[in-house]
Specification:
The chain is α/β, with parallel strands linked by helices. It folds into two domains: 270 residues, no CATH class; 83 residues, Arc Repressor Mutant, subunit A, CATH 1.10.10.10. The chain is 63% helix and 10% strand. The protein has a four-stranded mixed β-sheet. A three-stranded antiparallel β-sheet has the order 5-7-6. A hairpin with a 2-residue loop joins strand 6 and strand 7. It starts with a strand and ends with a helix.
Length: 365
């Protein structure tokens, strides 16, 4: 599978994603607070990385001069949470610039203009039976009447958004120009943060490239169960979409599909997976600490590292029994160990204990 990895900040994409977050109340502060509730060093470390996305979000929200009604018109998501009028317009510019797209559009013949707008309008992603370009029905849409009948048949799309598709069809050039102006206005507010954003994206790219070199795009499926069907892909690491993965396929226009990949997505997924595994072990954890000997072992190892015979001596039980208790606690990741010469010393895994206690608290909140 072929791919191109963009290594630099993509300013217009960052503005597009940020305005979508603002209009749809996707405040990174909430994500940070959720991470801090995990009360683990790993979660806290990721949470602190969100300080700059929070500053960018607040700065743009406070200073944006565009009319709020127009921002809602463009960026408020539709029935599909990744679809908005802005996304339909923005996707058409991914293989070119806004200015080039406008110039191309003006140069289109009437037939080319219709085919282009048909692709824009039917890229809403809500009814594959209608919008799939490989479906013979797609080629049967020859006239405006055919297209409008097709829009009417799109399932799970409100009349308001069907009307917006008609506006897109009739006013594409004006809407694209207005969206571009809004994004440029947003970029002027974001400019003081560009250097820090680029440093962060560079760090992500260096690590991500190593995974791609070793596994290719199979890395997504191997690590996170994400199957990519595209033969060709452009990957855009995103700062303001830090916890998102969005795929854009503009109905085959251009040579590549496009992925907007959040720079902290993998870390957040790993944290969530860890929490899920810990939830499965919550009952075994409670069973373990209900045993007086196992609980005493945990208490002893809170202050010092000890090897098996020392634990046996302090608890006045056999080495065999200590071995059984330690094995159970190790399986729950409640203990860590290290070898020093011929002895294996055990320590309390305080971070894992805290995870279990936090999960238990959530059960009764």
């Amino acid at each position: 599978m072929n791919y191109i990895l963009t290594e630099n900040t993509t300013p217009l994409l960052e503005a597009f994603l940020l305005l979508g977050n603002i209009i749809n109340d996707n405040n990174p502060k909430e994500q940070q607070e959720n991470l801090l509730k995990c009360s683990t060093p790993a979660a806290t470390q990721v949470a602190m990385k969100l300080d700059t996305p929070i500053k960018v979000y607040n700065s743009v929200k406070e200073h944006i001069s565009s009319n709020l009604d127009r921002l809602n018109f463009f960026f408020k998501t539709w029935e599909d949470p990744h679809t908005s009028l802005a996304s339909l317009l923005f996707a058409s510019t991914l293989d070119t610039s806004f200015n080039d797209q406008l110039a191309n559009f003006k140069a289109f013949s009437s037939e080319e203009r219709f085919e282009f707008l048909k692709g824009c309008v039917l890229s809403v992603g809500l009814d594959e039976n209608i919008i799939d370009k490989n479906n013979p029905e797609y080629d049967m849409i020859k006239t405006e009447k055919d297209l409008f009948n097709c829009i009417e048949k799109i399932k799970d799309l409100s009349y308001e958004h069907k009307y917006h598709l008609l506006l897109l069809y009739y006013h594409f050039e004006d809407l694209l120009q207005e969206l571009h102006t809004i994004l440029l206005d947003t970029l002027s507010i974001m400019e003081p943060f560009f250097r820090e954003m680029q440093i962060t994206i560079t760090d992500f790219v260096e690590d991500f490239k190593r995974n791609l070199t070793e596994h290719g795009l199979y890395f997504f499926e191997k690590e996170f169960g994400i199957t990519l069907k595209s033969d060709k892909l452009k990957i855009y690491p995103t700062f303001n979409g830090f916890n998102n993965l969005i795929l854009e396929n503009f109905l085959g226009r251009g040579s590549y599909d496009h992925m907007f990949l959040g720079i902290y997505l993998f870390e957040i997924i790993r944290l969530k997976n860890d929490v899920f595994m810990d939830e499965k072990n919550l009952a075994p954890f409670l069973k373990a600490i209900s045993d007086p000997s196992k609980l005493e072992i945990l208490k002893l190892l809170k202050y010092e590292k000890l090897y098996a015979s020392q634990l046996a001596e302090k608890l006045q039980i056999s080495n065999a029994t200590i071995s059984h208790h330690v094995s159970t606690l190790l399986n729950l990741n409640l203990l860590t160990f290290e070898k020093e010469q011929t002895k294996i010393y055990f320590s309390l895994n305080k971070e894992k204990v805290q995870i279990y206690l936090t999960l238990l608290q959530r059960v009764f909140e």
